[in-house]
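Table S7 (text form). Paired inputs.
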Amino acid sequence: MLFSSLIFLWLALPIIWGGSLLLPKVARNGWLLLMSLLVYAWGGVSYTGVLLFSIVMNYGVGLQLHRPTKKLWLAAGVVVNLGTLAYFKYAAFAVGEANDLLRLLAIPTFELPRIALPLGISFYTFQAISYLVDTYRGTTEAQRNPFRLGLYISFFPQLIAGPIVRYKDMNQQIDQRSISWDKTAEGLQRFLYGLAKKVLIANTLAAVVEEIFALDFATMDAFTAWAGVLLYAGQIYYDFSGYSDMAIGLGLLFGFRIPENFNFPYASKSIREFWRRWHITLGAWFRDYLYVPLGGSRGGEWRTMRNLLLVFLATGIWHGAAWAFVIWGLWHGLFIVLERQRWWPLENVPYAFLVVLIGWVLFRTESVALSLDYYTAMLGLSAKTVPFDWAFYWDRELTMVSLVAVLLGWPWGKWLFSGTSTDIPESVSGTSTDVPEKLPGTFTQILQITFLLTLFLLSTNALVNNSLNPFIYFRF
């Protein structure tokens, strides 16, 4: 169920939130677990079986991680988690590649039944693995209540598209949390801020992006190609960060503080800085559960470079089952390796933004061949071009939204909003955020409340009149 849908805003959310407020504390976890499973099942009942299997399996393995054989249990748990993810997400791709090779060798191919990708499986699988590894390391104790572990894995605000939450950041909140007026106000403001980013900015940009990327790249002119990827950069940022804002806001409504996920990534001066600002929880996960176990920066420069490339190879694979994602991940990894060299001269916003833009072409097309055609158009090398009808699409609304997108995508826009979680403890967030800072004063608060209500009404109106409402990261 989309957070940016009318049925969620006007029916599901009031029921879930109202029930949580009215029920006694002892019943709130059970209510949230039930509602989380129902919200998830809305996207496909068959997916729920995979989620329940993950909960039960990881609960059982977690209980064994105090035994002398805990290393074997950890290995088994990680293999089952990754194996489940690999089957649903990568089996079709692997079979397709194998069949291409078999055709070259004139060997009969084989077919695989169509496999539906369960929503959010990449996210909740990584959360489950972090629970097992942290329990194995002694960072946290195994959860002996299956319903509490089930709530951690299935908590609906961040289940489908993150942020990726560590168990150690949630377990105490599951057992002991409070719902206060301050948290409620902060959560509502954060949710509405994210809703506006998604509905008013990302969806507006998406309408034009869809038209541009549906064109024949072989006849695309350079201006349209650059405009398309620039608009997509805005779309994916406001789409994904908007979802994260809504997830964090919903968490606050139920008494949870969820980690931050974005911190003005397009203000980065390097690709290393970009990944400290973009999808922060995923980068932190790979750092703690892959990069450090591989040896991190220990063992010399060559081993460090190898570890970094492996991490970004895994990052690309995590995002999708296509060679384009593999190359996208290695593209970022290559520049991070280069930036470690003393002789590397570039460290500025235009350089980092250009590298990210070039990568977004691979990310959007999901095809190496199509990306090469798009790059050709960006360079103005198309043999014959057909002009795009910009007069039809570039109207007053797109102009205004584009300007707002530029303003809010830079740290100077922090003061425009308030009531957000800039006071999150470092143990939870671990980073500064791209959420606005609070402004004091009753008059300012009245203005902000009026502004947020206006955003809500505008967003609702946009949802009524516009059917284009995709969340890009739902695919992962």
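Next pair, protein 2 of 2.
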Amino acid sequence: MVIPREPTQPKSPGQRIRAYRLERGISMEQMAEFLCCSKGELSQIENGHKSISRMKQLLWSCMVPHWTPEMLKSDDVSS
């Protein structure tokens, strides 16, 4: 018997960004262009290898209405 798993909520900023992008069928290239960053930087953020600068937290939270700077903040990795 297979027990269905509850969908997990993204926990890290990168996971939130990736979930947002995939739910809307947006390519990494399109998302990077929209967020004014490189595709490589976006990939590093989504994979948890790079944190989001405070300036980008503020900018991106203005660009995507339901994101807040606090949602995009991570103390786990360095900028």
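The chain has four helices and no strands.
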